[in-house]
Amino acid sequence: MDYSIEQWDANSEFTTVTDNAMSKGYGIKYWILMRYRYVCKAYDIECDPVYMDENYQYTTNKNVEASFDVAPSGPWGDMGNGNPQQQPIPPTEPSAEPTSEPTQEAEQTPTTNQSPYQCWSEVVGYSCCSSNETTVYAHDDNGDWGYDFNKQEWCGLTPYDEPTQDEACWSEELGYSCCKSCKVYETDNDGQWGYENNQWCGIQSYCSK
């Protein structure tokens, strides 16, 4: 079914619309606003406080606005009670991409025996999900990911389990600690490199088992 002119005009602003086949289209300006906020937070960019304000006011066309009461069998799964009625699509998947390659001059970070992490996402700089956030929206080497729609940011669902560390960390002699996770960002003559806590780290042998 084609969208009406009224739906088309509303969807070019902040209104999310749907057709009889339950195909939803997020309002273009609403989608841009959500992406803008995500990028500002994810990359710690100083952005316009007007658009970062969670109480930022915008209008929608109630005559054609789609309902977000998604059934458990729908693409979002069972959202349960207490969730916002207007659920945005999570933006691009969580990322902690490094911005430069490892060098020989790195300052080694001291390690402690007690893990400071509660979930795997904290290793790469993301908070753990609250007990109310259980829906999985993405999965990668760091486990399952949920999305906090109130904060507009990704969160981790997989509990942190301390892996068996290598007896000798090969990257320490180069000035880098070894990684907890197994995601590889770079490979060179020394070995495979990950990126955690805003610094490079050496991938351990248990990642290849």
From TrEMBL:
Keyword match Repeat: yes
The GO molecular function terms of this record are: hydrolase activity
Q: Which residues form a coiled coil?
A: none
Protein name (database record): CBM10 domain-containing protein
Q: Does the keyword Signal apply?
A: yes
Provide the species name. Neocallimastix californiae
Q: Which Gene3D superfamilies match?
A: Cellulose docking domain, dockering
Region span, Disordered: 71-115
